[in-house]
Design a protein that fits this description.
The protein is α+β, with helices and mostly antiparallel strands. 15% of the residues lie in helices and 31% in strands. A 4-stranded antiparallel beta sheet has the order 1-2-7-6, with no helix packed on it.
């Protein structure tokens, strides 16, 4: 038999790691976290014409339920997806779709033109296009 010295710091760290593991597991399965809310999956890509495009999957939401803001080079998408279904939890056999409020923020490069950002919503996908300022785009220089 081996005696091990107990440390409150080690015990708390293990509890915190377990909590974080559960939170990440739930997020990757698309389940609401115990803290409430959910996070829609997001893709950020740069197009051939050097625009940034942000696509977020927010099915089941209306345009009016989504708020987009851009301040200090930070793009923020927020909203709330309502739970749809019988209020009595005993009637549910399985609930996997996330619901509740969400807020996602992304730091964008200084080259983004904040005055020309466009957003559209179609078939549950929010698409935000962030063009670069003309003075920051690469350009060809002719040799004379």
């Amino acid at each position: 038999m081996t005696l091990t010295r107990w440390s409150p710091v080690t015990g708390l760290a293990a509890l915190e790691i377990d909590r974080l593991n559960r939170m990440f597991d739930a997020a990757f399965r698309g389940e609401p976290s115990s803290e409430g809310g959910w996070e829609p999956p997001v893709d950020v890509v740069e197009t051939a014409d050097q625009q940034l495009v942000v696509k977020a999957d927010v099915p089941g939401m209306k345009r009016e339920e989504i708020k987009i803001s851009f301040e200090n080079n930070i793009l923020t998408i927020e909203g709330e997806r309502k739970f749809v279904g019988p209020e009595n939890r005993e009637q549910h056999h399985r609930v996997e779709r996330g619901f509740g409020s969400f807020r996602r923020s992304f730091t964008m490069p200084n080259s983004v033109d904040g005055t020309a950002i466009a957003a559209e919503y179609q078939d549950g996908v929010l698409t935000i296009t962030l063009p670069r300022r003309a003075d920051t785009r690469p350009r060809q220089i002719q040799i004379s």
